[in-house]
Structures are given as C-alpha cells and as structure tokens.
Amino acid sequence: MWFCLPLQVIERDRMRESLSLFSWALLFSCCWVTQAEIFTSISHMTDLVYTEKELVQSLKEYIKAEESKLAAVKSWANKLDALTKVSTSDPEGYLAHPVNAYKLVKRLNTEWSELESLVLQNPSDGFVSNMSMHRQYFPGEEDKTGAAKALMRLQDTYQLDSEAFSKGKLPGMHSNAMLTVDDCFDMGKTAYNDGDYYHAVLWMQQSLKQLDAGEEAVISKADILDYLSYSVYQMGDLPRAVELTRRLVAIDPSHERAGGNLRYFERLLFKQLNELKQTQQSASEEPIQLGTYIRPKDHLPERDTYEALCRGEGVQMVRHEKKCIRLLCRYQDGKRNPRLLLKPIKEEDEWDSPRIVRFLDMLSDEEIEKIKELAKPRLARATVRDPKTGVLTTANYRVSKSAWLEGEEDPIIDRVNQRIEDITGLTVDTAELLQVANYGVGGQYEPHFDFSRRPFDSNFKGDGNRLATFLNYMSDVEAGGATVFPDFGAAIKPKKGTSVFWYNLFRSGEGDYRTRHAACPVLVGSKWVSNKWFHERGQEFRRPCGLTEVD
C-alpha cells in the first residue's frame, strides 16, 4: 500500500532537507573561499554570487520550515488546550462517549508521538523529559487497535452506521465528538490489517464520503480507493470492485497495483458472467452502508439473539406479565435475619424461571465510592480460564478490567459481604472474593456460564462449583451495558445501587444451562459492577439438595 505521511512528518522531513541544504551550502562556500585565496578570478567570484543566492534561498527555506514548525506546534497547543479543558471538567462523563475514548487513545498513541518528533528538531529538553516520563503510561499499538475494534463492536451490536459514529450521533445523545476523514481511514485500515474486510469497507467508504464532501485530510483519495476497492473485492462484489478500481486508475494512472488489479477483477467478472450466462451490468450506484453486505458469521451461535436483546429487541415478558399480573415485589428480611428485621431489603422479580430477583438500595453511594476507590489501583484486564489448559488468559469476548477485594481490607467490604449473606441466606465463607469490574469503551462479556461445565474445573474442586451469582450495579449507564439472557429473552438494565441474584445450579448440583448470560457492550457511559460468586460447599443445609435432577 502507498501511504500519505501526516503533515507533521512532512514538515519534519522538509526541515531536515532544508537544514541539510543549508549546511552543505555553508561547507561549499567555505571550500570556495579557500580556493579563491589560491585562484583569485572574477569567474570564481561570479560562482560565489550564485552560491550566496543559493544560501539565501536555503536560509529562507530554513526560516519558513521553522515558522511552519512553530505554527504547527501552536496549532496543536491550542487544539489540545481546548480539548483538555473539556475532558478535565468531567473526565468520566467525557470518556463515557466511545468516540471520545477512541480519539484519546489514538491521540496518545499516534499524534503525540508525531508532535514529539516535530519538537525534537530543536533542543527541547523539558518537553522530551516530560514525554519520556509519561510515555510508559501511553497506550500502545495494541490499545489503539483495541479501541478501534471496540467502536466496530458497538457498530455491530447496536446497528449503527459509520456516519452515526463519525458525526457523534449515538442513540439518545448528540456530541461534538466527531471522526475526521483520517480517523475513519485509520479505522478501516485497522480492520483491513486484521483481515476484517466487512468493517474495512464500511469505514473506508465513510472516509471517502467525507473527503468527497470537501473535508480536508492528510490521506489521499487514491489511498482510500486502493483499500476500499480490494476490500469490496474480498466481500465478493466484483462489479463495484471494478468500478472503484477504475476511479483509482483515473486519479492515479501510474499507481503500481491499480492497473493489474483492474485487469484481474475484469477477467474474474467476465468469467463469472459467462458461467452464469448473464450480460455485464454496471455496479450498483447505491452507496455502501450498513446492510449492503452480510456480516460474516463468527464463533458465537446466538450472536443475533444476543445483540438483539442488547438493543432492546425481542425482550420477552415473564409469566406474570403475560397474565397481566404485575411483577411481584416485596420486603425481604432474610427469613427474619436480625440485621434485616428493622430495615428489610426491597426485592423485585426480574424473571420467574429460572428465578432472577433484583434488590433495591443494596449499596449506598458511600459504599460504592469506597469500593471503586479500593479497586481502581488494582484494575487489570479481566481474564477467563482457558478450557483446554486451565490457565487464566485474556479473551476478546471479555473486555473489561477487574480487581478482587478481601473483606479484611476495609470495614465497608466486610459489611457488604455480610449484607449479601444475610439477604441470600448463603454463607460467604466459601464464596470468592468480591470482584469489581469496570467496562469502558465497548466493554462487554459475551454469552457465558458462571458455573464450570463438565469436565469439572479442577480449580473449583475444593469448594465445589459456582452455585449462585450476586451482581451489584455500581453505576447507571446512559446506553447499552444490559445483562441479557439469550435462552429466554431477558434483559436487565443496570441501575446504580441495585443488585440481581440467581442460582447457576439446580438443587441436584447440575448446571442450569438457561442461565447463560452476557454483559452487553457499553455504548455510552462507564459501567461499574461488583459480584460475589457463591460455591456449593457450606450451603448443604442452607440450600438442601432436591429429589430430581432439575429441582
């Protein structure tokens, strides 16, 4: 591929050329002066006149390059000053918008490095020292790629076209967080490099659309068409691939691949039409958009159901609602638990079979802030256990950061653990530590079981399988982030301070496969949750075995 260098890089290289020319001219002049002392002649002096003129021109170019560099730095400073004023006024609110989060990662990963290269042309010890000190905290290339893929994940789940993201138009909110031509190109290039031609087409098309609308860009139309035409070909749309490649050849007849690609695409199209006994038709004039091509299937069999539930589509009513009876709600005192008699917990039914209940006012704002405060320094990429090796590893289907808190760390953690035990009637002695998780841009956990399926996970043998899940919502989420159960069509929206509870196992100890659930990608907002996983051991008399496998 041919790539157009960013403006800052172009200015940097131009300045280096100017400095080189200036240095060469000075050296050349010195040589001529030395020779003039030996060979005094008008002709040689005439040459010096032209040398001086060349030096002046070189000096002007050097000054122009310096001024250009300074103007570029000033422009950067003004833009970033305005950006940081907005972002620091409400960091979490600013990062709640996925485009803002993506652009922050992109700026720190790519654009600040370009600025560093620009400033490095002259002694800038303070800036370089500052950059070096903070560089260890900068997102890497993997982070930049991950942020781009997160936007694509949101695009798929919530069926948003590229223009919606580009213009900051997300469900329920409008923002000034916009993607430029170059941003869209980078998104498409990320997908292209990953062999994801479906998303490469969508984002390259958006980049081209904005460029054709007159938006300024560093990237050229030829570069966009180069990527777009090949991606369209990979999606099996030969007529459009031919049409796009012809546009590329018209713009850049000397392009090193365009001519060859065009001949190849035309031969394939001719062969295809002959086999189908059809006459050649012109490519569709309809613009490429969401739905033009079918998204390739992936590893998740219930992908369509899961994503529909995340969008609020296909959500089923529980039996109470079908009978036009209101969902049951009650005050729950934990079977007359002394700690709940004076202040029972409010309980609502979310689903009847399997039974899922929500507890209201489970956590206070003070408790939530303390739990977040304790967890933040320890947040690390959440892991899953590899079913083949048993080793904990990161996975693309679980995108969040988590930390584990012990009851002894703070009285609030101990108090929350005790409250969970009082409400559920299950002992926390064999439960796992309180896990705290934060889902950022596009954060999700695709459909999974909380319990270990057979063959039994050796890590659970001591205390048995995960009997039940107690999930605390520690933030409201503007859009997305629901907990969904694809098997029976339930969708539970996060509500700060509330908790949901369900059993993962039947009384027999067999797994309840209906409890396969997922955390939908966060579209707008920052989702904080904490959870407690109860294990079987110690619950023998608190939840006795049933007489059948599915009791």
Automatic annotation (TrEMBL):
It comes from the Eukaryota. Residues 430-536 form the Fe2OG dioxygenase domain. Gene3D superfamilies: 6.10.140.1460, q2cbj1_9rhob like domain, Tetratricopeptide repeat domain. The keyword Magnesium does not apply. Its EC number is 1.14.11.2. SMART domains: P4Hc (SM00702). Keywords: Dioxygenase, Endoplasmic reticulum, Glycoprotein, Iron, Metal-binding, Oxidoreductase, TPR repeat, Vitamin C. One of its GO terms (cellular component) is endoplasmic reticulum lumen. TPR repeats lie at residues 222-255. Its cofactor is L-ascorbate. Catalyzes the post-translational formation of 4-hydroxyproline in -Xaa-Pro-Gly- sequences in collagens and other proteins. Belongs to the P4HA family. This is procollagen-proline 4-dioxygenase.
